[in-house]
């Protein structure tokens, strides 16, 4: 047992070194970049594209629109991104993820810039470089229409709960100025508004432009002045620390935007047209029906099944190997398998996913889809290993002794005698693990993989309907898992019959 713990400590130390070493190197690179011309602009031009990271749940800055049955990220920030890309002579590629993951993605090289209504604060500026501010808006509070006579600004919310997006300027303003109110944060603005409508929050702090968009498109919600004192310069574009060449190029584009007043004259009106849709109330109701978004849900089911199917196969194969290693008389194999299983089962899947996507991203750029498959597979393998190990241990020792006395090798004994009986015993437990894997695969949505959860959030953001997309998503997950459970029971009955 002591040896197992030593192996576990060594594994943790290696992981920490892998995470810290590249960061030190990048810090050195940043220091040298400040002394000489950096290569970031050349790198963007050489690859012919600039990757913009954003969290598309913040209208009119960035949001998802259903255009001819296909999802498209639109909004004022996207137009700013297009302007920067156009001036650089490259293509704009938009990558979506949660707001609080954007700066991590930027630091690890997953994206080239962040444009997501992000305010340039001194704390953020320690990790990234900001362009000049391209837009400054005030702050507002969303409240229920029934409470319009109760609340007038943050001062009237003493003792009440105010929601804000995780890692946002609004969350910091509440901490600093509304100290008598209770702060609750969520990753998505759409979730905040849904929580407000269902009486989980008393108010939600958002940008003025965003509050107008939600108040206009969400029944029972109105916007009021926040009363916060704002000291920031406004929204800016974030770049990797030391990317001075890109910052200078972006500042030229921003200067042109300001000179021509493109934000107020072109970008915001264009975003407003997307939000309004130019439709009558009847047409808008039809376009916001769940049937109009069937292709979104179908695509989400496809991604979920694809990730789950591959993860089941690799998780089972790796789990079987780990189980045999843990049962092995080879001390090294036993210790490695034990350390791996205990470590994976003792850490959250979310952390493992983020480490593979962002942490290992410092060494090698792993795409979001592949990162999700790797994380889910490796996590599932640890649990499958224990299931298989328990099944093998459930077979009487006499079975092995009898097989060996008949001349069968250890491998042949395991393959033809032990494993068939063990599989029969563990089949129900394996079925439960596979069903759990399908549900746990939903975690990949946090890094922008377009699975069923990701698609349901797109529908929420586009329709301003919080509950119905979740209902549809639950039904689809139930159909998938119930279908798999039924299939597993068919094989179980055949095994019992045999």
3D structure, described in words:
With 498 residues, the protein is α/β, with parallel strands linked by helices. It folds into 4 domains: 1-35; 37-135 and 235-278, Periplasmic binding protein-like II (D-Maltodextrin-Binding Protein, domain 2); 139-225, D-Maltodextrin-Binding Protein, domain 2; 292-497, MetI-like fold, CATH 1.10.3720.10. 60% of the residues lie in helices and 12% in strands. A hairpin with a 3-residue loop joins strand 2 and strand 3. The model is unreliable at 1-5, 11-36 and 278-286 (pLDDT under 50).
What's a concise summary of this model?
The chain is an alpha/beta fold and 498 residues long. 60% of the residues lie in helices and 12% in strands.
How many helices?
19
Mind telling me which CATH architecture of the largest domain this is? Orthogonal Bundle
Strand percent estimate: 5-15%
Shape: elongated
CATH class of the largest domain: Mainly Alpha
* Largest beta-sheet details: 5 strands, mixed
């Amino acid at each position: 047992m002591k040896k197992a713990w030593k192996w576990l400590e060594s594994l943790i130390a290696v992981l920490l070194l892998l995470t810290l070493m590249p960061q030190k190197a990048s810090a050195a690179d940043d220091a040298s970049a400040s002394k000489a011309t950096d290569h970031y602009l050349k790198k963007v031009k050489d690859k012919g594209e600039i990757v913009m990271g954003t969290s598309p749940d913040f209208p009119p800055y960035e949001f998802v629109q259903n255009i001819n049955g296909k999802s498209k990220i639109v909004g004022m920030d996207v137009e700013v991104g297009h302007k920067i890309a156009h001036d650089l002579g490259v293509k704009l590629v938009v990558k979506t993820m949660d707001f609080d993951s954007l700066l991590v993605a930027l630091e690890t090289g997953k994206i080239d810039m962040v444009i997501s209504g992000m305010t340039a604060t001194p704390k953020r500026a320690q990790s990234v470089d900001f362009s000049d501010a391209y837009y400054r808006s005030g702050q507002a509070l969303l409240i229920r229409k029934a409470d319009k006579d109760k609340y007038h600004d943050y001062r009237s919310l003493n003792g009440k709960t105010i929601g804000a997006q995780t890692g946002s300027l609004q969350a910091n303003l509440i901490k600093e100025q509304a100290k008598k109110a209770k702060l609750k944060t969520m990753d998505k603005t759409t979730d905040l508004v849904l929580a407000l409508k269902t009486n989980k929050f008393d108010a939600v702090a958002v940008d003025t432009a965003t509050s107008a968009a939600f108040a206009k498109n969400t029944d029972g919600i109105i916007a009021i002045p926040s009363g916060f004192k704002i000291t920031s310069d406004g929204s800016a574009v974030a770049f990797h620390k030391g990317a001075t060449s890109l910052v200078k190029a972006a500042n030229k584009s921003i200067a042109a935007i300001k000179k021509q007043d493109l934000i107020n004259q072109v970008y915001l009106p264009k975003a407003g047209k997307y939000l309004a849709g130019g439709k009558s109330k009847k047409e808008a109701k039809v376009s916001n029906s769940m049937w109009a978004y069937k292709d979104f849900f179908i695509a989400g089911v496809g991604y979920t099944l694809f990730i789950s199917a591959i993860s089941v196969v690799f998780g089972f194969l790796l789990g079987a190997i780990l189980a045999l290693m843990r049962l092995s008389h080879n001390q090294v194999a036993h210790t490695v398998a034990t350390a791996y299983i205990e470590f994976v089962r003792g850490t959250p899947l979310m952390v493992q996913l983020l480490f593979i996507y962002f942490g290992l991203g410092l060494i090698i750029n792993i795409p979001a889809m592949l990162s999700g498959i790797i994380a889910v597979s490796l996590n599932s393998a640890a649990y499958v290993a224990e299931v298989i190990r328990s099944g093998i241990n459930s077979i009487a020792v006499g079975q092995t002794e009898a097989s060996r006395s008949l001349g069968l090798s250890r491998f042949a004994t395991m393959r033809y005698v032990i494993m068939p009986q063990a599989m029969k015993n563990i089949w129900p437990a394996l079925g439960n693990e596979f069903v759990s894997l399908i549900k746990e695969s939903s975690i990949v949505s946090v890094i922008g993989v377009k699975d069923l959860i990701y698609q349901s959030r797109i529908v929420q953001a586009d329709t301003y309907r919080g509950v119905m997309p979740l209902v549809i998503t639950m039904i689809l997950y139930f159909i998938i898992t119930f279908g798999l459970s039924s299939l597993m029971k068919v094989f179980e009955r055949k095994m019992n019959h045999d």
